[in-house]
Design goal:
single chain, 228 residues, alpha+beta, GMP Synthetase, Chain A, domain 3, 3 domains, three-stranded antiparallel β-sheet, 35% helix
Length: 228
Amino acid sequence: MMDRDMEEKCPMPEIESLVLDCVSVEEAREKAAELWGIRPDDVEAKIISEDKKLFGFLGSSYKVEVRPIAPASFIKSCHFVNEVLDKMDLDLIPELNEDGMINLVGEDVGVVIGRYGETLKALEYLTNLACHDDMSTRRVRFDCGGYRQRREQTLSRLAESIAREALRKGTPVSLEPMSSWERRIVHLALRDNKEVETRSIGEEPSRRVLVCPVSRPERGRKKSTRNR
């Protein structure tokens, strides 16, 4: 049994576009940037038609198609985390990948990951809280120095170990509080294990995975002993 954490694949949202009537491409970028809460250089613009006023003597107006270079909330996330990193005086640059993941690149990789990834997870949580209106579907994920891949391997091994412990004790065993991505890794690691089931309990940011032994039906009734 698995819960909603299994559904979190964090797809990159669709990039919206608009058509604006402006006197220049620069004006279109500025209007779009103000509307989406980003910077003009984060906006792509393309003229789709031109309307000349009085044979061109009074200038021209344009219909300009504008779109952000990435989903606006993800662009704002990059700017937000860049400001935080500057205030922390860390030599790191956020790069937004095509799958919606912000990869922090630079010399201070170890510092921002922190012990057991706590600093990186806190930065991810804070960024999503500040920049994303819908925390359930428009989350941005963070990586730094290949941490996520290493963490995934560690969590898979931990899940198998916890499953053995739950079976040995015959009682549910909970893991430490984890992010939704980490919980999903645990669920996936134990998906094919027919002897246990997993579910998430608690509220963010203390939500955790509970690994429960699957009760087996009794096979027949016990034979009664003879009276002595």
